[in-house]
Structures are given as C-alpha cells and as structure tokens.
C-alpha cells in the first residue's frame, strides 16, 4: 500500500508552546507518522535531535533519526513566553510554505501550531482574524467551516467569535444551509462516512418550545432542515441542545451542528478537553490544528500537554488515508 505524503507541521508562534509540542509529538509519532516541522531549527528545545531537510521526500528517512525540519528564516532567537513582532514574517512564511507544499502534492496535509494574532498584526500587518481565514484566502477564498472533533464527538458552530447578542441576526437560513452542506460533504469526502447523519441544535432553550421561547427555530432553522431532508440528507432537528450530548444521543449522529460558539465547544471540551482537534472544512486540502492557544505562561517550562497536537497529527494522517 502506498503511504500518503508527509504532513507539513507549521511552527506557529515561536514564543509559545508550539516548538515543545512538535518535539513531544515526534517522540511519540515519529516512527509512525511522517511529518516535517516548518520553522527555525534553533527554536526547538535544546538537545532536540534535528534532521535538516530541503525537500519533504526526505522525511520518511529523516523522521526515524530526529525531528525533520524544513528551515524557515526568522529574525532572532526564540524567547519563550514573549512574542516578538519582528518574527511575524517567519510565522507567515511557514504557513504559506505549507500551503504550497500541500497544493503541489508534496505534503498530504497541513497541521498548524497556534499563532499569536497580535504579534502578526504588529509585525507584518496581518489582515486576517486568524489562521482559518488566512488559509481560506491562500486557497482562493474557499468558504470554510470550523469543526472541533474528538473520538467522542464532532461539532460545528454556525456562528463563531461574535457576542451572544449578535447571534440571532447573524444566523441566517443561507448561512446555516451553507455550513451544513460543507460539513456533510467533508464527512463523506474527508472522513469516509458514506451517509453522514447530522443533528442540528435549536437556537433557543428547548428549541423554542413551539414558538413560546422564540420563533427562530420554527421560522428559520426548521425549513432549512426540511429542505435538506427532502433532498435525501440524513438530518434531524432542531433539537433542544440540553438533550443532544449525552452518550446515547451521540450514537445517533456523526456531527452536531450548533448555533453559536459555546453551544458547540462546551460539550466537546467537557468530554475530551485535552484531545479535541480543530479541523477546517471546505478547504481544497486537509488542515488540522490543536484546539488551544500559545500558552505563553507555560512556554519553555517543559510541561505543555501535547495530547491535542498528537491527535491533530493523527487525524490529519487518517484523513489523508494513512493508518496508525
């Protein structure tokens, strides 16, 4: 069987825990999942066995000897816990290089370590709200969806980083339908689920309780679900969010579609806080990421938990067709 090409692991913010996580992941996965770290070799922890590469075709041999590093130029050394705006361009270059590699077929997927948006904005005029939007732009403006996934649950928030008071106005039938269609297609194409089952949460308590607690569930969410169900999609809802996430309920769907950020993220972080993976759906390539930030407060101290990064690499590998 032909194995997928290696995964491109971008360095993220050097001052955060990313470099430590990359090494910890290599120590566990290096002999099983080939990946290359795109960043500065001297930003990795001291005494890290490093294998400098110039091409990802060298990764399968290099990864058995050390962390394969495709060098990216950075301005100065890493200072753990303190972001330096002068290093912003290196972070951006690593992401752009990873996209070129996956678009050319030299990499099977991208896994991104956490970035620090303020440093990128101050140091390089970074014009995007975050990683996802930048990757969408690099992919030609693809319409993308954020999924949080673990072995126990997959969730997709329809609206993301906006105040609760703005959710009802932002939540439109077109947006909901688009998010559902992208999720359904990705579950088939990237997760290998032949007939995905989707469960859609209501916006209001008790999914509006027949209109007594708001009309959005009846007037906007339900018609979208009925339209997609009539097309043959296996989809149910709107369901009261307080009954969707216990173990028996989760057996009946492959992904939950949620109306806002916390409705989606609280359940998955309660069930599997350390192993949740951020997956960007809708891109023309595979992208995963650990579901946490740069953690400046513990950077360089040697006890950052690599579980989410390890799961992100494993999920990217599985989505690319590899086994572990």
UniProtKB/TrEMBL annotation:
<keyword id="KW-0862">Zinc</keyword>
<dbReference type="GO" id="GO:0042823">
    <property type="term" value="P:pyridoxal phosphate biosynthetic process"/>
</dbReference>
<dbReference type="GO" id="GO:0000287">
    <property type="term" value="F:magnesium ion binding"/>
</dbReference>
<dbReference type="Pfam" id="PF04166">
    <property type="entry name" value="PdxA"/>
</dbReference>
<feature type="binding site">
    <location>
        <position position="287"/>
    </location>
    <ligand>
        <name>substrate</name>
    </ligand>
</feature>
<feature type="binding site">
    <location>
        <position position="269"/>
    </location>
    <ligand>
        <name>substrate</name>
    </ligand>
</feature>
<dbReference type="GO" id="GO:0005737">
    <property type="term" value="C:cytoplasm"/>
</dbReference>
<keyword id="KW-0479">Metal-binding</keyword>
<feature type="binding site">
    <location>
        <position position="131"/>
    </location>
    <ligand>
        <name>substrate</name>
    </ligand>
</feature>
<dbReference type="GO" id="GO:0008615">
    <property type="term" value="P:pyridoxine biosynthetic process"/>
</dbReference>
<protein>
    <recommendedName>
        <fullName>4-hydroxythreonine-4-phosphate dehydrogenase</fullName>
        <ecNumber>1.1.1.262</ecNumber>
    </recommendedName>
</protein>
<keyword id="KW-0664">Pyridoxine biosynthesis</keyword>
<comment type="subunit">
    <text>Homodimer.</text>
</comment>
<dbReference type="InterPro" id="IPR005255">
    <property type="entry name" value="PdxA_fam"/>
</dbReference>
<feature type="binding site">
    <location>
        <position position="278"/>
    </location>
    <ligand>
        <name>substrate</name>
    </ligand>
</feature>
<dbReference type="GO" id="GO:0008270">
    <property type="term" value="F:zinc ion binding"/>
</dbReference>
<dbReference type="InterPro" id="IPR037510">
    <property type="entry name" value="PdxA"/>
</dbReference>
<feature type="binding site">
    <location>
        <position position="132"/>
    </location>
    <ligand>
        <name>substrate</name>
    </ligand>
</feature>
<keyword id="KW-0460">Magnesium</keyword>
<keyword id="KW-0560">Oxidoreductase</keyword>
<feature type="binding site">
    <location>
        <position position="161"/>
    </location>
    <ligand>
        <name>a divalent metal cation</name>
    </ligand>
</feature>
<comment type="similarity">
    <text>Belongs to the PdxA family.</text>
</comment>
<dbReference type="GO" id="GO:0050897">
    <property type="term" value="F:cobalt ion binding"/>
</dbReference>
<comment type="pathway">
    <text>Cofactor biosynthesis; pyridoxine 5'-phosphate biosynthesis; pyridoxine 5'-phosphate from D-erythrose 4-phosphate: step 4/5.</text>
</comment>
<feature type="binding site">
    <location>
        <position position="206"/>
    </location>
    <ligand>
        <name>a divalent metal cation</name>
    </ligand>
</feature>
<feature type="binding site">
    <location>
        <position position="261"/>
    </location>
    <ligand>
        <name>a divalent metal cation</name>
    </ligand>
</feature>
<keyword id="KW-0521">NADP</keyword>
<dbReference type="GO" id="GO:0050570">
    <property type="term" value="F:4-hydroxythreonine-4-phosphate dehydrogenase activity"/>
</dbReference>
<comment type="function">
    <text>Catalyzes the NAD(P)-dependent oxidation of 4-(phosphooxy)-L-threonine (HTP) into 2-amino-3-oxo-4-(phosphooxy)butyric acid which spontaneously decarboxylates to form 3-amino-2-oxopropyl phosphate (AHAP).</text>
</comment>
<keyword id="KW-0170">Cobalt</keyword>
<keyword id="KW-0963">Cytoplasm</keyword>
<dbReference type="GO" id="GO:0051287">
    <property type="term" value="F:NAD binding"/>
</dbReference>
<keyword id="KW-0520">NAD</keyword>
């Amino acid at each position: 069987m032909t194995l997928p090409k290696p995964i491109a692991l971008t360095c993220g913010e050097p001052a955060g825990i990313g470099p430590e996580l990359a090494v910890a992941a290599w120590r566990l996965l290096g002999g099983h999942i080939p990946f290359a770290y795109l960043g500065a070799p001297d930003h990795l922890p001291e005494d890290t066995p490093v294998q400098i590469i110039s091409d990802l075709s060298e990764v399968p041999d290099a990864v058995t000897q050390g962390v394969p590093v495709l060098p990216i130029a950075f301005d100065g050394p890493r200072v753990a816990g303190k972001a330096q705006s002068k290093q912003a361009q290196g972070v951006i270059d690593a992401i752009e290089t990873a996209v070129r590699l996956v678009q050319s077929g030299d990499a099977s997927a991208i896994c991104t370590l956490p970035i620090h948006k303020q440093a990128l904005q101050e140091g390089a005029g970074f014009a995007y709200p975050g990683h996802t939007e930048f990757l969408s732009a690099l992919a030609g403006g693809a319409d993308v969806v954020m999924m949080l996934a673990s072995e126990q649950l997959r969730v997709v928030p329809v609206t993301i980083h906006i105040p609760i008071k703005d959710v009802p106005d932002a939540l439109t039938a077109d947006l909901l339908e688009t998010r559902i269609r992208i999720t359904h297609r990705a579950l088939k194409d990237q997760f290998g689920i032949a007939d995905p089952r989707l469960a859609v949460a209501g916006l209001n308590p008790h999914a509006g309780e027949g209109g007594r607690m708001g009309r959005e569930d009846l007037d906007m969410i339900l018609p979208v679900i009925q339209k997609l169900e009539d097309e043959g999609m296996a989809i149910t809802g709107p369901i009261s969010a307080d009954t969707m996430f216990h173990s028996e309920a989760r057996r009946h769907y492959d992904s939950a579609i949620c109306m806002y950020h916390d409705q989606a993220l609280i359940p998955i972080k309660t069930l599997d806080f350390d192993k949740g993976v951020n997956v960007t759906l809708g891109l023309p390539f595979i992208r995963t990421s650990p579901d946490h930030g740069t953690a400046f407060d513990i950077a360089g101290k040697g006890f950052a938990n690599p579980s989410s990064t390890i799961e992100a690499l494993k999920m990217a590998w599985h989505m690319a067709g590899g086994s572990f």
